[in-house]
Specification:
Layout (H helix, E strand, L loop, with lengths): L11 H7 L13 H16 L7 E12 L5 E8 L2 E5 L4 E12 L2 H10 L1 E7 L2 E7 L3 H6 L7 E9 L4 E8 L2 E4 L4 E8 L2 E4 L3 E7 L4 E4 L6 E8 L2 E7 L2 E8 L2 E7 L2 E8 L2 E5 L6 E6 L4 E5 L5 E7 L4 E3 L4 E6 L5 E7 L4 E7 L4 E5 L1
Parallel strand pairs: 2-6, 2-8, 3-7, 3-9, 8-10, 9-11, 10-12, 11-13, 12-14, 13-15, 14-16, 15-17, 16-18, 17-19, 18-20, 19-21, 20-26, 21-27, 22-26, 23-27
Antiparallel strand pairs: 1-4, 4-7, 5-6, 22-25, 24-25
């Protein structure tokens, strides 16, 4: 049996209550406009309190960078989400929301000032960086942590080249046709309707790519999470995960490579004529659910599972000796190749 290879980092009423009884003003005696303003202020204060009683303060800013219709935007975040979508014109508009939590409003506002967003522009390229205090600055301020979350919402030209990273947060891109590189250490990565996806990776999170049309290769991976690709057109599609499932649905690619260490693999849709599909899992089940009439040549092996094909195979052989199962055969014209290998799991081939 062939061995598989696997590749493997969250006022008013208080003031009134404090007055002497004789000096209190009853709410019904407050003029209506003043009463409305007091209620609105109280609502804002309550909204700025988290469930555990800590104060929340928010700062919002917007930056516009002139990168051009085919320029480049490189955005790196530390703690917070990054959401990028297609805009109009040749500028990228970046909405920045900083949110801080502290034991008091003053403390939360102080933390907001410690986290800075640096934007640099030069000849069709813009860099955006979230800067937290370094260790020396933290010691100088007698501070142990900075509880600030920074969220970016970006609209960019459709053809811009986008690179986005977040250490702790989700990263998403939608309706962009330039080259996309999306990565997160602890968060999900989602790409929808992307024209050129150079890479999509997460260490601890799911990766999902939908509706991409790529003139080249697409690579996506997660260490601890699922990887899903739907309606993808590319020359080659390579998905990898260490601890999670892989799913490919309606992919048009001449070569598909799916590798999981601990997870199931699903391949759903029509095979490409002349295409080669290599699916390997160490500890998981492999399911191939086919539509269309493309035939295939099958080479399937498992060490401690079973192999079942609901499609009739001809010209092949099976080996069901103890502790080893292997099936070879041809379905239809055999124009595609299915190479399926799992160590601890079953293999199932069926109609969709």
């Amino acid at each position: 049996m062939k061995s598989a290879s696997f590749r493997s980092v969250v006022f008013l009423f208080g003031v009134l209550a404090a007055l002497p009884v004789s000096g209190q003003v009853r709410p019904e005696r407050i003029p209506a406009p003043a009463r409305v303003r007091a209620e609105q202020q109280g609502d804002r204060q309550r909204q700025n309190r988290t469930e555990n009683g800590r104060d929340q303060q928010t700062e919002r800013t917007t930056r516009t960078v002139h990168i051009g219709a085919n320029g480049e935007l490189d955005l790196a975040n530390i703690s917070g989400d990054v959401n990028i979508s297609r805009g109009t014109g040749s500028d990228a508009i970046i909405e920045i929301v900083k949110t801080a939590h502290g034991p008091s409003a003053e403390e939360a506002r102080t933390m907001l000032g410690l986290v800075q967003v640096e934007v640099t522009e030069r000849s069709g390229r813009a860099e955006v960086r979230t800067r937290y205090p370094n260790s020396d600055e933290m010691r100088g301020a007698n501070r142990r942590n900075v509880n600030v979350w920074v969220t970016y919402t970006v609209t960019a030209p459709a053809g811009a080249r986008i690179t986005a990273h977040s250490i702790s947060g989700n990263v998403s891109a939608r309706d962009l046709h330039g080259e996309l590189t999306m990565e997160s250490v602890s968060g999900n990565v989602v790409i929808a309707n992307g024209g050129r996806v150079a890479g999509a990776k997460s260490i601890s999170g799911n990766v999902e790519i939908t509706g991409a049309d790529i003139d080249g290769n697409l690579e996506a991976s997660s260490v601890s999470g699922t990887v899903t690709a739907r309606r993808i057109k590319a020359r080659q599609l390579s998905l990898n995960t260490v601890s999670g499932n892989l799913s490919v649905e309606d992919a048009d690619a001449s070569r598909v490579e799916l590798q999981a260490v601990s997870g199931n693999i699903d391949l759903i849709g029509t095979l490409s004529r002349g295409g080669r599909y290599t699916l390997s899992s160490h500890s998981g089940e492999i399911k191939v659910m086919l539509s269309g009439n493309t035939g295939f040549e099958l080479d399937a092996t498992t060490f401690s599972g079973s192999i079942r094909s609901d499609l009739p195979l001809t010209g092949g052989a099976s080996d069901n000796r103890r502790r080893q199962r292997e099936v070879r055969g041809v379905y239809g014209d055999g124009s595609a190749v299915l190479d399926l290998n799992t160590f601890s799991g079953s293999v199932v081939i069926s109609k969709r």
